Amino acid sequence: MSANGSPTGQQPTATYDSAFLKACRREPVPHTPVWFMRQAGRSLPEYRKVREGVPMLESCMRPELVTEITLQPVRRHDVDAAIYFSDIVVPLKAIGVDLDIKPGVGPVVERPIRSRADLAQLRDLTPEDVSYVTEAIGLLTAELGETPLIGFAGAPFTLASYLVEGGPSRTYENAKAMMYGDPQLWADLLDRLADITAAFLTVQIEAGASAVQLFDSWAGALAPADYRRSVLPASAKVFRAVEAYGVPRIHFGVGTGELLGLMGEAGADVVGVDWRVPLDEAARRVGPGKALQGNLDPTVLFATQEAVESKAREVLDTAAGLEGHIFNLGHGVMPSTDPDALTRLVEYVHTQTAR
Question: What is the pLDDT of residue 12?
Fold first, then answer.
């Protein structure tokens, strides 16, 4: 049984008929559902207040704090889904990888993976390693009621990029050098990360998450042939591992216009689209049988309300013929975004698409 009382392998009954999950299943919706990547985070003054003096990774391991942060944008913006507050490196930290999230830099790994011996850092993830996740999701589903909770994890390629580079990178020279120069080591690294990622998503689903999103944030650095050969198998393994639970699986990356079809092929039910490709064109690239999520440029929110509504209308118009559409930004909410702009955007989309 999952934490919400539903049999494992079935979606939580309280959220099943929500607009968000209906859109994921490409069913008729009462309005286009809206949520935002990074909706729980630095753009909210209430978030900054509760995070004062608490390091990022520590905040991800406090169930009561995770619950409060995850709920903040639901209360403020009336979004159609909550996204579990965490970080993509949490499962790596949980299995003992020596890393930290440094302010202004991002995840930094003490001993980057550069050889086969370094793979020993990556043991299997168990539910006990992330018991705080199970506890937090139990608290959240009790509070959220009919509002779905989206679980998430970093995709194997993006996690591998951090682990091999030792931190954020613009060029991924070390990761690509391994991918091209030692393809077997690379494949073994991604396969191990696929198992860790699948285990992390499984914990979230069994605790009560109604959907999951796999973030392959940096996959846009790859050519399609390299993605198909060296990345897709690991992402597909993650999606297969959680398929039997029956929850919608979302796949998202930045700068992945040339990869959209392949990302759908990896096994997602919903493909996230950044702002560079119109949704109607994205639908052509992805092919039938998938819902799409996106794709307003996050920087539009710094413009006038009139401009925001105009650009949102463009997104809605290009999505008009889609089988299923979830309105989102084409990447995460930027830290200096006015929260009121997000609230007004949710209201605008709900009003314009009411059926």
Answer: 53
Distance CA 184, CA 201 (A): 26
245 assigned to active site: no
pTM score, two decimals?
A: 0.95
In terms of C-beta density within 10 A (0-12 exposed, 13-18 middle, 19 or more buried), how is residue 182 classed?
A: middle
| Catalytic position from the list 16, 87, 182, 280 | 87
* Beta strand spans in the chain (E): 82-83, 99-102, 106-109, 149-154, 211-215, 249-252, 270-272, 291-296, 325-329
What is the residue whose two structure tokens read 């979004």? 79
Name the active-site residue from 16, 25, 51, 280: 51
DSSP conformation letters of 28-66: --SS--B--TT-SSTT-HHHHHHTTT--HHHHTT-HHHH
297 is catalytic: no
Q: Render pLDDT for 123-155 as a digit per residue (tens, 0 to 9).
A: 999 999 999 999 999 999 999 999 999 999 999
Annotation marks residue 38 as catalytic: yes
